[in-house]
Amino acid sequence: AQSVSQHNHHVILSEAASLELGCNYSYGGTVNLFWYVQYPGQHLQLLLKYFSGDPLVKGIKGFEAEFIKSKFSFNLRKPSVQWSDTAEYFCAVKPSGGSYIPTFGRGTSLIVHP
Amino acid sequence: SQTIHQWPATLVQPVGSPLSLECTVEGTSNPNLYWYRQAAGRGLQLLFYSVGIGQISSEVPQNLSASRPQDRQFILSSKKLLLSDSGFYLCAWRETGGTGELFFGEGSRLTVL
Questions:
Q1: Does residue A16 come out as left (phi exceeding 0), alpha (psi in the -120 to 50 range) or beta?
Q2: Residue A9 pLDDT > 70, yes or no?
Q3: B43 contacts in A (CB within 8 Å)?
Q4: Smallest Cβ distance to A44: which of B42, B59, B104?
């Protein structure tokens, strides 16, 4: 079975700082990768996803993630964070082709100070 | 467009009482449906998923059960709640054969006293 590890549990940044949240997974086959975000008081929503092709994926609100197959990683980045990026971020992996079940990481709580 | 509704949003129940959380999806057919529990610092724990009416798979043996009486309805239940059942429960759906993206409900906060 697959597993997902998010190494940063709590991240605190000032506005305009750069962000990188780590995500590593373990699975021997082809995977689909996701980042979800949960803003305070809101439901979980998709930030971006990778299925195939260009390993650098662009998402909403200026976020991007890079799939590095050799490192089993899918790190989330943003060059300059804003106070409104304060949220909890979850990485998820799903074996491609026929699997029903995505596996989520433990989440990273990001606080951005104005 | 598709929507997902989950209720009640908050619930306070005594130990030993029954539970019923409901989730309905609109605007799609034959979705895959999921119940997750979200705990601080522990991420999302998959409890149940369903690929069709009456088809339920349990991921974690516990005091809870799930049912899917209709194509777009998913119910999380318990006959007798335990203190450890307190938590934040999320319903989600995805398209059968779709891209794998999950769409989440607003969540239900359960407190067992």
A1: left
A2: yes
A3: 6, 90, 104-107
A4: B104
